[in-house]
Amino acid sequence: MDAEAQQNHLKAYGMTYWVLEKQFKVNWLLNYRGGSFLLPDTADIRKECQIRGVSFEVLSDAAANAILESISSPSQNMETVILEKAPKIAVYTPKGKQPWDDAVTMVLTYAEIPYTEIYDEEVLSDQLLLYDWLHLHHEDFTGQYGKFFGAYRNAPWYIEQKKEAEALAAKLGYNKVSEEKLAVALKIRDYVIGGGFMFAMCSATDSFDIALAAEGVDICEPMFDGDNSDANYQARINYNASFAFKDFMLEKNPVVYEFSDIDTTLDRMNKRVPFPQDYFTLMDFSAKWDPIPTMLCQNHTQLVKGFMGQTTAFKGDLIKSNVLRLGECKLNGEARYIHGTKGKGMFTFYGGHDPEDYQHKVGDAPTVLDLHPNSPGYRLILNNVLFPAARKKKQKT
Description:
The protein folds into two domains: 9-83, no CATH class; 89-389, Class I glutamine amidotransferase (GATase) domain (Rossmann fold), CATH 3.40.50.880. It is globular. The chain has helices spanning 9-21, 43-52, 61-72, 103-111, 120-124, 149-152, 156-171, 177-193, 203-213, 222-225, 265-270, 291-296, 376-386; strands at 26-30, 36-38, 79-83, 89-92, 116-118, 133-136, 197-201, 279-282, 303-305, 324-329, 334-342, 345-350. It is built from 13 helices and twelve strands. The chain is an alpha/beta fold and 397 residues long. The relative contact order is 0.15. 31% of the residues lie in helices and 14% in strands. Helix 1 packs across helix 4, helix 1 (9-21) packs parallel to helix 13 (376-386) and helix 7 packs across helix 8 (177-193). The strands form two sheets. A nine-stranded mixed β-sheet has the order 5-4-6-7-12-11-10-8-9, sandwiched between helices. The two termini are 27 Å apart.
């Protein structure tokens, strides 16, 4: 899985998932040649690698054991993690959403990793318990319809989506979309606390935390829910309820395309983060002492191209101290990729919309992943997909 030898990094994850589905175990060699996978040697596996265009090397038992022995040396910042089962994957997405609206569904499809689409009805009927891993993407859990009101209030798609959301909330027994979305957010919170793995991108990151922190408080203006917001609602925000963020200030103006000051999109424009210099750096962890963040940061480069989104990245001083920063932009100190524990489960937040579409806009053509088979930004998503398959070792720091 290093830069030189692997011709399709993304499909290599799908190949690994396929092997796990066949009831084989896989060794994930952390920090060894870009985070390589040691698969069993069978004729079927070789053939499948060739069909999928995944590069591989055949090793003798002696050569494989020598690699494992070298990795186990205390002098090497490497570790072997055993992947034991193919995780059951759920993608939280509204019915009829186009696949290219979500980077995760695109890369899962490209890597040939199966997933099930679920939405509010499934979440509220406790079907999350059927899955090991849950993905949230461009979603607004605050009931403000993505804060698209300013630019798109008269667009047919906005009017239709608002109508559909209101109808679904009523069908499920809620008076407001904001109340229904809060109920969904609370179910997802309980899923994580109970031991689930949640991966969120773009606006699903901060809107999820804001919804939890604003439980019992009306933060929606009349154009969103038909009545006024609560007076002085900022003072009633409960930061203890959120997963990752603290001390944030909500954006009260309904025509501003922003939920709060968590996101750095406007801030980085003011600081002039130019496109040619827009990269973030993956943190370097000890594979033996901190295998979890090491797994999540496996890549063939530590420098990853930045990309925009409604929520592009997170202000460093608004991240809770118990949340790990996995990737940071050194130019302005923002965190792009963070990870934390909640109860028995874990969550990862990844800012931005599409790792290979720098400034994705409504109506843009889909990314063709055949043109980006070695994308470092998409590899980070797939690290999270395989993460629940790992036999867990207690983190030592």
